[in-house]
Write a structure and sequence with these properties.
Order of helices and strands: HHHHHHHHH
Largest sheet: none
Number of strands: 0
Distance between the termini: 48 Å
Radius of gyration: 17 Å
Strand content: under 5%
Structural class: mainly alpha
Number of helices: 9
Helix content: over 70%
Length: about 190
């Protein structure tokens, strides 16, 4: 293969999570383009607690390669709960995170108590932003939900770059999620 072609291709392959993030966000934004501010705030607010729940679950399992399948299962759960419209997906995600954290406190965790407490702090903070944002008027709530998504993007970057947090989730997921999170936050801020 020509060296000039192999460098861009290898760069593209190495950054596949970033490219996938842009594609997923673009598809999601296009699908919701006709939605209202209220629908966007509720939709993104209901999904936000899934993100720290994944970190809590994967931290407790201790197997980063489980991250992507756990994301798939979590998305199926969120969308099924939204379709059934019986309970708040955000409430269920927060409840599941608390149950997994309690399991970690009772059973122990592969990454140690410090990691468990750090993931607990993230779950509480992001869950609080999502739930509070959902309870407010959509104009006000969007700022909390957008803040939650943006701050979770920073959370992802911390897990991608800081030595003590590496290995909690798959690095490809942390990269993908960081990009998606920031794009969603920007979308929420600029919604009319």
């Amino acid at each position: 293969m020509n060296l000039s072609l192999s460098l861009p291709l290898s760069s593209l392959l190495r950054r596949w999570p970033t490219h996938l993030a842009f594609a997923v966000w673009a598809a999601t934004a296009a699908a919701g383009a006709s939605g209202t501010l209220d629908e966007s705030v509720v939709g993104y607010g209901e999904v936000l607690p899934l993100l720290p729940l994944l970190y809590v679950v994967i931290n407790q399992i201790g197997t980063p390669r489980s991250t992507w399948p756990a994301l798939g299962g979590g998305l199926v759960l969120v969308f099924a709960l939204q379709a059934l419209d019986l309970v708040s997906p955000a409430g269920v995600m927060v409840g599941l995170a608390l149950a997994v954290l309690l399991w970690g406190m009772l059973r122990g965790t592969p990454h140690g108590r410090d990691s468990l407490w750090l993931q607990a702090a993230g779950a509480v903070a992001f869950g609080a932003l999502a739930v509070t944002g959902l309870l407010l008027d959509p104009d006000a709530g969007r700022w909390l939900v957008a803040s939650g998504w943006f701050l979770h993007g920073l959370w992802d970057l911390a897990h991608l770059t800081l030595a003590r947090l590496k290995g909690t989730v798959a690095p490809s997921f942390a990269e993908w999620c960081a990009v998606v999170d920031v794009l969603v936050a920007v979308e929420l801020v600029f919604l009319q």
